[in-house]
Amino acid sequence: MIDDRYELLIIGAGPAGMAAACEAASHGVRVAVLDNQAAPGGQIYRNVDRATNRQNRILGKDFVKGRSLVEQFIQSGGSYFPGSTVWFLDEKRRVGVLIDDKSFFVDADKLLLAAGAQERPMPIKGWQLPGVMTAGAGQILLKSAGMVPNGRLVLAGSGPLLLLLAYQYLQAGVKIDALIETTPRGAISRSLGKLFEALPATDYLLKGVKMMLAVRRAGIPVYHGVEGLSAIGEEKLEAVRFDTGKTGFKKVTDCELRADTLLLHQGVISNIRLPLAAGCEIEWDAGQKNWAVTNDEWGRSSDADIYVVGDGSRISGAEASALQGRLAGMHASHQLGKISESKLEVLSRPVVKSSKRHLSIRPFLDSCYTPSPCYLVPGDDTLVCRCEEITAGEIRQAVRLGCTGPNQVKSFTRCGMGPCQGGQCGSTVSLIIAEQLGKPMAEIGCLRVRPPLSPITLGQLSEA
Amino acid sequence: MDHDCIVIGGGLVGSAVAYGLSRQNQKVAILDGGDRSFRASRGNFGLVWVQGKGWDYPPYAQWCLKAANLWPEFSRQLGEETGTDLCYQRNGGMHFCVNEAEWEERRRILEQNTLHTDGEFQYEMLDHAALAEKVPQISNAVVGASYSHLDGHVDPLSLLHALHQGINRQDVTYVPNQNVSEISGKDGEFQVVSNGTTRSAGKVVLCAGLGNQRLGEMVGMNIPVVVDRGQLMITERIKPFLDWPTLHVRQTGEGTVQIGDSHEKVGLDDGTDPAILQKIVQRAVLMFPFLARVRLVRAWGALRIMTPDGNPIYQQSETCPGAYAVTCHSGVTLAAIHAGTVAEWISGKNDDPLLSRFGTERLHV
Amino acid sequence: MFKTIEEPAEGAVEILVEGVAHRVPANISVAAAALLCGLGSVRETPISGAGRLPYCMMGVCFDCLMKINGQPNQRACQVTVAADMTVERQLGAAEYEDL
After folding, report:
1. Contact state of B237 with C93 under an 8 Å Cβ cutoff
2. Same domain (yes/no): A214, A109
3. Residue A421 is nearest to which of B35, B277, B298, comparing CB atoms?
4. Which residue in the set C28, C56, C78 is minimally distant from A136, CB to CB?
5. A395 and A312, same structural domain?
6. Nearest-CA distance from B289 to chain C in Å?
7. N- or C-end of chain A: fewer Cβ atoms within 10 A?
8. Residues A277 and A325 both lie in one domain
9. What's the CATH code of the domain at A400?
10. Long-range contacts of the stretch B179-187 (C-beta < 8 A, 24+)
């Protein structure tokens, strides 16, 4: 049974949330963790405590590392509510959560939001066709269901996760018919300047090289610098097409590849719905092309009683997210009077050092895999809002009428009014408006977040 | 002079007035708020309503009936011109009553409407059996309803969209993100300063909703605006079940179910309060028990533009003639008359005698 | 078009998908099960009637809406399969029989 008050309420049981819970609980803080999945791990360590040996071999050492954190979390002694969905959160820090069909309101002295990241939308023509999914979806199916694509498979996009998935599929014996890289040509050479900063995280770099070599050795056709990517088909995906690209040194034009499954990926973006609902300040991170949550070195947001850490604050990776969770957990412990300032200093020093090392790879990765503008701001006939089936052209029309931001665009087009409430289209809409008006993202802003933050029935609400 | 009229505010009121003015060949500019402005249109329930309106103030009863009767042609004209479907329907509307006392009170109220309109307003009181025949899913908790065939509904945001498309086609100058800092007028010309730019016009029309009080002072008018918050909710799309709009439950053109409402004095806070949301939902589920299984997609608050007596303000400044104020909370029902009669009053083409009953003197007695 | 890489370690359950009985690994999501069963689409949108299959598998996109045990519009990726569960495609707007 959930209490109506905790000292530290954590939303999200991924690396950051779990690490924060372990840390705070170890100092005697009364902690509760809410997570919408059936088991801890978030997306990155999804199902890690039940993965089979075969899955572990395919998914790799980094995945298995998550197991010890999950075990530590389960032993940590805090209250944990899996399968719970937070449907209400406001600036007064009231949390409304649905557990087993019943709604409860919970208060907390300190709130920690660790909702992680989601796939950056990659709106290409035809992306709504059955058979087109995200690389993240591919990973989730592999981790949580031991499932892999069966048929002609194309992986397309940009980012370390795409390469990782290709590598994992190779370990699983999956035939990949093509790997399409949409990273703009020259991104890697432009990023070399950041390579020096990334040297403390050489292990990340070496892993990347190892995966690239494995893909080469397997003889998978790789196309680089691809432009004009689209998904073709009548009632489902039938083929993947692109206008121009390079394979090796050879230029390719008007290429069409038959496909049954297309997995898209161009990086991840922070899931900022909870921080927005709580009134936390956000800022546009131009390097990551991401709305990040403004926070200090302890993870405190613009509200001193709300910590926002992990990929849900800015894209950091699993290891750095866990370290940020620890820092927030120990800081909250100090604020709650459980540990002294000097103890906090001593505890945090090695964590801060380790966190810096893990974060040092990011500028290089962000630059290397920066999404190409043509896949951030799609053409007129590409769907932006999948729920309401609104195209980029309709959004541009609304801007021509005088809309200066995503909320008025929503009022005029219904973009963002569907069941996903802008979760899937929000970032694209703002990018389209910014490009059309020639204004910075900070001025355009993002869609307003309103309850419910996840679906709730009228019956559940009436009985709250 | 840059323009014939500058309209301050591009919401349902401002854009309807500007649309009407531009169709009379007036050269119009609109200074509008921004993406995060309060925008009362986001809180409008979409009713094009006559029953019960102005039961205690005859001019308003007449005014709303007049507006509702202008709506069909207004909708046809605007829809044709812009190609936007307003989802306007005039098949009648209902007001559910949950006890006998409410039912009797409702009858008394609507009798007033009939009286004030010389019998033109017509209604029917339905008992539970008659109501259940029209609305099969209604629960037994609803003892009956008042019904008037003169009521209807529309999608408020499609209306706003269409009005903006309309003013765009008429070459109205539309300027968003504006903050008006000064209005001065002399010799039949007004200077409006916003964001450091000065624009001149022969007439100025204040349609800035909550901002009208501050702007009114600049042109010698006392426009008392009362902030009133309403919370409302929208569900997932469900198969059609409710053919008539009501004050608390309305199925939209898309099939979503809109649920409301509340009246709260919370200042400039358009947030949500779970306790109020719960009351609103409980009322809706009381009326339609099956709604308990339906999923909520969004809940929000919006600020109404109320006047002290709830009736509109249509006022021309006495010290600065040529400056007008239009303030009301019924931006949807009155849109048709704002684009017609009110625009004609402002341009000097016509002066409907009813308008004089909505001046500010009545509020300062 | 998806398949499993090995025999399910935690056993299997029988569910009804569009009226047809299927044995699927226990503890997977309904969305995963729908993919395994080879459904051409899990829903038809209420806007255009176009068919959709799951897209993100993590609860963000709402493209995997299905009718599960008679309750419409549930995100299939957020529901775990259970014995004798009925899974149907969500065709357009939700339909709720009155109580």
Report:
1. yes
2. no
3. B298
4. C56
5. no
6. 7
7. N
8. yes
9. 1.10.10.1100
10. B180/B8, B180/B31, B180/B208, B180/B211, B180/B215, B182/B218, B183/B215, B183/B218, B183/B219, B183/B323, B184/B218, B185/B219, B185/B320, B185/B322, B185/B323
Task: Pick out chain C residues at pLDDT < 70.
Answer: 98-99
Considering its fold, how many domains does chain A have in total? 3
User: pLDDT tens digits for A36-88?
Assistant: 999 999 998 888 888 888 888 888 888 888 999 999 999 999 999 999 999 99
Residue with tokens 């949950």: B98
A17 inside domain: yes
Which pTM was predicted?
Answer: 0.95
Q: Which positions in chain A touch B232 (Cβ < 8 Å)?
A: none
Could you read off the pLDDT tens digit of each residue along chain A, which spans 464 residues?
A: 899 999 999 999 999 999 999 999 999 999 999 999 999 999 988 888 888 888 888 888 888 889 999 999 999 999 999 999 999 999 998 999 999 999 999 999 999 999 999 999 999 999 999 999 999 999 999 988 999 999 999 999 998 889 899 999 999 999 999 999 998 877 777 777 677 667 666 777 777 788 888 888 999 999 999 999 999 999 999 999 999 999 988 999 999 999 999 999 999 999 999 999 999 999 999 999 999 999 999 999 999 999 999 999 999 999 999 999 999 999 999 999 999 999 999 999 999 999 998 888 888 888 888 899 999 999 999 999 999 999 999 999 999 999 999 999 999 999 999 999 999 999 999 999 999 999 999 999 999 999 999 999 999 999 98
At A184 the pLDDT is 83
| C8–chain B nearest CA distance, Å | 34
State which residues form the domain around A438: 377-444
What is the DSSP code string of A330-348?
A: HHHHHHTTSS-HHHHHHHH
End-to-end CA distance of chain A: 15
C4 touching chain A per CB within 8 A: yes
**A250, A266, A282 — which closes off a domain?**
A266
Helices (H), A146-193: 160-171, 187-191
Q: DSSP alpha helices (H): ranges in A299-425?
A: 318-335, 341-359, 362-368, 373-376, 392-401, 406-413
Compute CA B9 distance to the chain's CA centroid, rounded to the nearest angstrom: 14
Any domain includes A457: no
Are A110 and A170 found together in one domain?
no
The answer to whether the CB atoms of B235 and A458 lie below 8 A apart is yes
Q: Which of C89, C90, C87 is nearest to C15 (CA)?
A: C87
The CATH number linked to A27 is 3.50.50.60
Both structure tokens of B340: 């017609």
Which chain B residue has the Cα nearest residue C65? Answer: B236
Could you tell me if A329 and A428 lie in one domain? no
Show the tokens assigned to C97. 């029989």
* C93/B294 CB distance under 8 A: no
Residues A262 and A131 occupy one common structural domain: yes
Residue A352 lies in a domain: no
Strands A153-158 and A261-266: parallel
Quick: pLDDT tens for B121-158: 999 999 999 999 999 999 999 999 999 999 999 999 99
ipTM for the complex? 0.97
Q: Are A372 and A158 in contact (CB under 8 A)?
A: yes
Q: Which of A291, A318, A339 is the last residue of a domain?
A: A339
Interface check for B238 against chain C (CB to CB < 8 A): the answer is yes
Closest residue in chain A to residue C62, using alpha carbons only: A420
Cα(B74)–Cα(C5) distance, integer angstroms: 63
- Mark whether A285 and A233 lie in a shared domain: no
Verify whether the Cβ–Cβ distance B161 to A408 is below 8 Å. no
